[in-house]
Amino acid sequence: MIMGRSPRGPRTFAVLAAGVLALAATACAPGSSAPPAPSPAKTAASAVRTDAASLGDVTLTVWDQEVRGGQAAQMKQLNAAFEAKYPNIKLKRVSRSFDDLNTTLRLALSGNEPPDVVEANNGRSSMGQFVKAGQLLPLDAYAEAYGWKTRYPDTVLRYSRYSADGKVFGEGNLYGLPQVGEVVGVFYNRAKLTKLGLEPPKTWADFQAALEKAKAGGEVPMQLGNLDKWPAIHVFGTVQGRHVPAEQISTLAFGRKGASWTTPENVKAAEELVGWVDKGYFEPGFNGQGYDPAWQAFGKGKGVFLIAGTWLLADLEKALGKDLGFMLPPGAAAGAPPVTTGGTGLPFAITAKSPHPDAAAAYIDFITNADAMKVLTSTGNLPVADTAQQSVQAGPQQDVFTAFGAATKDDGLVPYLDYATPTFADTLGAALQDLLAKKATPKEFLDTLEKDYKTFAESNG
Amino acid sequence: MGRPPGEPGRVAYLYLLPAFVVYAVFLLYPIGRAVQISLYDWDGLTLGRWAGLDNYTAILSDERLRAGFGHALVLIVFYAVIPLAIGLTLAAILNHAKVRGLGFFRTVVFLPQVVAMVVVAVAWRRVYAPDGTLNALLGALGLDGLTRGWLGDHTFALPAVGVVGTWFESGLVTVLLLAGMSRVPMELYEAARLDGAGAVREFFAVTLPSVRGEIAVALTLTVIAALRTFDLVYVTTRGGPGDSTSVPSFEVYHRAFGLGQVGSAAAIGVTLTVVIFAISFAINRLADKGTT
């Protein structure tokens, strides 16, 4: 038997239970051991020092998630250059994968000696909560001193902005600075389009006609693997951007009061997406296909279009070469101002408890300055600033640079929809799976989203 | 006074102390802390706010979470009940047939247990993919009408995850029962034969009662495995499609590390622990009753 009964059993258990409860009652409240965060005093540009060479001997601990391919290469190159330029500053680099960083950062920040520079995810449940807990330093003074605000488009900087209490996302203090940009758009297979007698579509109507023609031609019109729950968010966001004004999408996606999910425009977007399922534009069983197998299939020539982010560029280019094309989702008319989901890579932030904020800011400036952007380009990344000034070979990489440049220049970036509330990624992902599987009508789908959004926006004040 | 010689006295507690200290530091203290945290509204970063039993009442009123516990109960069928049926049949056959190479079969049956669950999950994800092995097999049999993206189907995702559990646990149960059956004295079977019992009668009259203890062990282990399923769901479906495969353990992870609702996560964890404890206790009670 697993649990032999001894005559003493019940009493022993009672004693143990009492002990556990006593412990629970007497121990101090969770979180009370963390000392209060020092109030970030530096607000004036005059109070910060930008002369990194004269800061004395400093060791900076940096936590990043730049572990893959070109990301790792640029980081290594820039760190080496930084240490060569400022021999008085030593870097202690800790790099972890995105998931590992996300789960360990929370603990690291609440400790007494957190790292100096950290890459923190923009969203409410990461950066928002760190700001609320007073663990990150507002960087506005540095932004002024280093001129970040003139080099970075405002649509990009707002993804790292929070009010001091962490409640309002998208405006307020600046808490981080990203290196790279991201934009969701339409990847297409040029060879397949040519075979179907098509040009890359210039308008949204053209695009849907191309999908129809691809279907008739026996191709998979659009590749999608939605098993991981979130991939359809980007597809829905793209359709939504054709129907709902960008202003409203931003309000919804930043989780601010004053917009609604149940508008006729949103209904239209949801219906159009369901229509794609009905017309068979996706492969059967797409809800059960993984994200990676789906884009890999596109890379192997299965599928004419793929709605996805620029983070797939390097891998897809390797697979499809010159056949790969990328464009922003076309507007209602040719040449209409672009609207598309996009943002930045994880921003680099300075912890409030760091004893060397000036050196940390100098480091962040160094890995994001104009020279750094060139390094990012040469290592195959998409630099978030000065994108138009970079020279790259014609082909998919140039497509992506052009697209990102155009989207940021005309303020065409709208935030990821899952930024809206701490639970929204899950709510939206699950609701989209239901919608696409016809387990929920467009109206039920939007009601679910509205409930999450309204509950949060109201309680957040 | 009056204690028979050789009977341990109070000094025995001294011998227990080192083990107890380790147990207390690594198990009792964390449990106590988890119970305590579950009574707070805490984001893991700032000072927690006393919430009393709010986190627990929220569990009861959260439809999605209730559904999660429901899914865990369905998984018990796939993790414990079906493997037990398979294990009993298989063990009875293997034990009786005295096949050559019994050791080999035992190893093969037990093999899934040796593989890490994450690896198992990744492999099965491929099997269930729309262009995966299962659909290819169905296609080859001319059953194209049945093919689907198994893990993305609202009806079949949970059973599909469950079948992985069945595949995983059956070996363990079989080996456990086999060990139990090999202990049954041959005389019992002979006596049954002489009384004119067939194979089926023999199974119910002799084999089944003899392995009652092993059944209890097998059920306890597999039920616990079913209730705390995390890695399998995390890798295969992330609780989808919709919420049709969400389970409590996944919710604990999601809330603590994804959403920063540490208090609520702790409350789910504590509730799950209590449920597991109650069910294992009931299983062992039932098994004990039968033997006395």
TrEMBL record, chain A:
Keywords: Signal. Pfam families: SBP_bac_1. The keyword Signal applies. Residues 1-29 form the signal peptide. PANTHER family: ARABINOSE-BINDING PROTEIN-RELATED (PTHR43649), DIACETYLCHITOBIOSE BINDING PROTEIN DASA (PTHR43649:SF12). This is Raffinose/stachyose/melibiose transport system substrate-binding protein. It comes from Nonomuraea roseoviolacea subsp. carminata.
Automatic annotation (TrEMBL), chain B:
It is a multi-pass membrane protein. Residues 69-283 form the ABC transmembrane type-1 domain. Its main location: membrane. It comes from Nonomuraea roseoviolacea subsp. carminata. CDD domains: TM_PBP2. This is Raffinose/stachyose/melibiose transport system permease protein. Gene3D superfamilies: MetI-like. InterPro entries: MetI-like, MetI-like_sf, UgpAE/MalFG_permease. Keywords: Cell membrane, Membrane, Transmembrane, Transmembrane helix, Transport. It is found in: Cell membrane. The chain crosses the membrane at residues 12-32, 69-92, 104-124, 156-179, 215-236, 256-283. Belongs to the binding-protein-dependent transport system permease family.
